[in-house]
Amino acid sequence: LWGMQTLLLGLYGFFSSRKEGGTKKVCAPQSERTNESAKENGEGSLVSLIGSSIAEGALKSVKVTGCVLFFSLVSGLLGSFFQGLFSENQVAAALFYGFFEFSSGIACLSQANALSLFVGGLIIGWSGLSVHLQVAGFLSDAHLSVKKHLTAHLLLPPVTSLLTVLLSKALGLL
Q: What is the pLDDT of residues 129-158, one digit of tens each?
């Protein structure tokens, strides 16, 4: 499913950039520009480049973990207010929690039936607000627009849901 989603997002990006008149030159993230200028000036050694790469990777990991934790807590707190709505309906709970953080939404689906697979495809196609905030942060660091990412993730959920159900039937899982 992740592979299908990646392929569909790649195709969307390719064809949408062709409609806009070709590809645009992308500005490298700040850390790459700093490392390149340091190398050009003879200031950057391999050790300092490795050190800065590790530090940047650690910072990005903390950002990702913070987003996941924040949206898991927000959905958990909001879910406690609406607990009566979800007590008998795992699909409603999955959609609610999956809107914020996809792994929480997927965790709500316990039955392997066509409806659960369809809803799981919707949740994975949407990816959750947590992922969108993470991607927005990384795209803004690279001076890229978030518009294409959000457009693709608004179009992708129904496609991934249908592909999930069709693939499950073809493999005999349903």
A: 999 998 888 888 788 888 888 888 888 899
Alpha carbon distance 163, 118 (integer Å): 9
Q: What is the DSSP string of 40-79?
A: HTT---HHHHHHHHHHHHHHHHHHHHHHHHHHHHHHHHHH
Reading the block at residue 108, the tokens are: 């709500």
Burial (0-12, 13-18, 19+ Cβ within 10 Å), 121: buried
Query: pTM of the full predicted structure?
Result: 0.70
Nearest to 7, CA basis, from 170, 163, 165? 163
Single out the residue of 158, 107, 154 nearest to residue 132, CA to CA.
154
As to burial, measured by CB atoms within 10 angstroms (0-12 exposed, 13-18 middle, 19+ buried), residue 145 is exposed
